[in-house]
Amino acid sequence: MTEEGQNEALRCIGCGSIIQTDDPQGLGYTPNSALEKGKETGELYCQRCFRLRHYNEIAPVSLTDDDFLRLLNQIRDAKALIVYVVDIFDFNGSLIPGLHRFVGDNPILLVGNKEDLLPRSLRRPKLQDWIRQQANLAGLRPIDTVLVSAKKNHEIDQLLDVIEKYRQDRDVYVVGVTNVGKSTLINQIIKQKTGVQELITTSRFPGTTLDKIEIPLDDGHVLVDTPGIIHQEQMAHVLSPTELKIVAPQKEIKPKTYQLNAEQTLFLGGVARFDYLRGERKGMVAYFDNNLPIHRTKLANADRFYQKHLGTLLTPPVMDERENFPELERYEFHLEKKSDVVFEGLGWITVPADTAVAAWVPKGVGALVRRAMI
User: Fold this and answer.
1) How many helices and strands in the chain, by DSSP H and E?
2) Helix or strand or coil: residue 157?
3) pLDDT, tens digit, 9 for 90 and up, residues 160-219
């Protein structure tokens, strides 16, 4: 947007955010064509409010860390049930650092979304146990854990029943980082709670503000949809939308087992790398999108292989994005027990005990070891 346009400080009449035309993921985004039409009619909505008003669709919006901390402080002062949405497939990448310090005495209901991506053979009670233990390690003590698939509308009824059980004359705040499917979940809740026909009217949304949307509940309380916080260590921040489609699972993943000898390497497309440094010949189980190409080579040859084939055999990134792709950083792990080596936002490899491995990820993206999920 031009400096002149910014000085005019045009605001959305739905949420009050300053209109901008540069960042589709940011607050107040409006396409240029809609901006001009809105000026003519006097009904200037940001894209998020336009979709909310006309299509009953809540679109994701991201806040900066400072904005989100301000919002978390509001949550601490509220009397509310906190519904904390995480992506089961990218659990560590969807944790909000320090959330437990900001919720005050408010209870947390942990919701694991995208459970449809994990193999059906994984028993769901065991998965709930695993998620609860991981949350405890992060300093959270959720009162309950629910697994859902917002995309497939799976277990949303159960989630609403659990929310009703625990909210006890309180508002409900739904929080989560970007890319966990929170907005899809909110839209499913809207359909379940109110029905599409009568939902979106100006009078029904008196609390629609710059940083949250309030959905009326039956007893005068509200369910508050908060914008997603940007987690900078997510793989999504180094890939284009086209490349993300190759690495972000859309359906149940099929694990692949690789029998590896020491000093062998697996390339995960061109976006990450796994080195088996020391240990006996063992099976390593890879959990990634079914379309992500995985290539095996000798560790001694891995650097040359990467330089030669990045953008062609090793994709993503595609050739046009190869020059802009961040360098891979190396993390070494010595594992005494069966563990998951996690490439945040991409997936993980389950590694047996008594091994030494290295994980390579784009600079700025996280790699870590955790207790094996499966």
Assistant:
1) 10, 18
2) helix
3) 999 999 999 999 999 888 778 887 888 888 777 765 433 333 323 333 344 567 777 878
| Cα four-point dihedral sign 22, 25, 29, 31 | positive
Helix axes 182-194, 156-167, angle to 10 degrees: 80
Strands (E), 73-161: 80-87, 108-113, 144-147
**Identity at 192, one-letter amino acid code:** Q
- Cα 124 to Cα 92: distance, rounded to the nearest angstrom: 19
Stretches in the chain below the pLDDT threshold 70: 1-8, 14, 16, 53, 55-65, 67-69, 194-212, 230-233
Q: What residue type is 242 in one-letter code? A: T
d(CA 243, CA 69): 31
The Cα-based distances of 255 to 121, 207, 313, 361, 374 in angstroms read: 11, 45, 21, 20, 11
Least Cα distance to 46 among 16, 3, 1 occurs for 16
Please list, in sequence order, all residues whose beta carbon lies within 8 angstroms of the beta carbon of residue 137, skipping any fewer than 6 positions away. none
Q: Are 64 and 27 in contact (CB under 8 A)?
A: no
Q: What is the token pair recorded at 112?
A: 């694991």
Q: Which of 150, 74, 139, 82 is nearest to 110 (CA)?
A: 82
Dihedral sign (CA 250, 60, 268, 115): negative
Q: What is the pLDDT of residue 210?
A: 44
Per the CB < 8 A criterion, the answer to whether 268 and 310 are in contact is: no
**At 130, phi and psi to the nearest 5?**
-60, -45
Torsion of CA 118, 122, 123, 126, to 10 degrees: -90
Q: How far apart are the first and last CA of the chain?
A: 49
- Tokens 């490439």 belong to 343
| 223/208 Cα distance (integer angstroms) | 11
Which residue type, as a one-letter code, is found at position 309? H
- Give the integer Cα–Cα distance in Å for 293 and 313: 9
